[in-house]
Amino acid sequence: MKVIHAIRFIVGDSIGMRRSVEAVLQAHDADHALRGYTLGCYAFSLEETGDYDAAERVGLEGLTYAPDDAWGLHAVAHVYDMTHNPAKGISLIDHNTTAWDHCNNFRFHVWWHKALLHLDRGEYADVLHLYDTKVRYEKTDDYRDFSNASSLLTRLELEGVDVGTRWSELADLAESRSEDGCLVFADLHYMLALSGDSRADATSNLIGRVARDAKTPTEAGRLMTIPGMAAATGLAAFGEGRYDDAFHHLLSAQPHFGAMGGSHAQRDVFERVTVDAGIRAGQLDQAEHLVRARNKLRGGHIDTFGETRLQTISNARRVA
């Protein structure tokens, strides 16, 4: 069950992920030794399919059976991120350290979730502190750890926060991994670092490799074409300040972001860059449409990013 759950997650099939758990849920009754972990998987699939109330309820129930289940705890943290409830999310993480502080690199991801919640509250100093002391304290080359770091720095820069020299370490690693061609999800996070550190030659090289992979007649090749090639080109253009080009390419990739895998929270960095590219390109109507669609995905809960961008769009229209 766990393996199928994970595969469905990686390939971006949230509905299949939910169904795969529901198919065996009744077999994990209250007396089953692994009921808590099953509920943790179910909670995550409920969250990824937008059933936030049920995800919170099931996730918290799962923790009563398996208080050391980091996956289940992180599922509930996802709920609080998606429903704009940072206080409950931070409290959940802080008061359940036994659920995740024993983990391997997954603990970095839980710290990343806490950083996102502080970001939603505008507590940028706390986010940078978490980045330095937790999220990127161990500078591993695991693409999941890398995605935590590169997406967090991108979010900070979109809010006007100076991240100093932190891009350099990530960009060095991204250059060394640009030929991997393993996952579109990983490649696009490498692109965030390369463009964040203004490495024009390296961004061109990565785009070239994605373009070569896109020619292969496989499912992976199809994903390298869309969203891969379009998103990579758009991210590079955004980093160079070419916002018209950036928005054109990112907008074409945006309906296909889910195919790259990962969670709503992980892919949201690309949604944010797309929105900001639209605003900076003066494409206010389309940018507003993206923000409102993003709010709808969150069950109508408007987080700080959504609120500030709608205000920015409104202000721009008054000036025009």
Short description:
This protein has 17 helices and no strands. It has 320 residues and is mostly helical. The longest helix has 21 residues, at 219-239.
Brief descriptors of the model:
single chain; mainly alpha; Serine Threonine Protein Phosphatase 5, Tetratricopeptide repeat; 2 domains
Query: Would you give the CATH topology of the largest domain?
Result: Serine Threonine Protein Phosphatase 5, Tetratricopeptide repeat
Number of helices: 17
- Got a strand count? 0
Helix content: over 70%
Q: Poorly predicted ranges (pLDDT <50, ≥5 residues)?
A: none
Q: Report Rg.
A: 19 Å
Question: Can you walk me through this structure?
Answer:
With 320 residues, the protein is an all-alpha fold. The chain has two domains: 1-103, Tetratricopeptide repeat domain (Serine Threonine Protein Phosphatase 5, Tetratricopeptide repeat, Alpha Horseshoe), CATH 1.25.40.10; 116-320, Serine Threonine Protein Phosphatase 5, Tetratricopeptide repeat (Alpha Horseshoe), CATH 1.25.40. Helix content is 72%, strand content 0%. The chain has helices spanning 2-10, 14-22, 35-48, 52-65, 70-82, 86-94, 106-120, 124-135, 143-158, 166-177, 184-196, 200-214, 219-239, 243-253, 264-280, 284-297, 304-319. α1 runs antiparallel to α2, α3 packs antiparallel against α4 (52-65) and α15 runs parallel beside α17. It is globular, with a radius of gyration of 19 Å. The N and C termini lie far apart (55 Å).
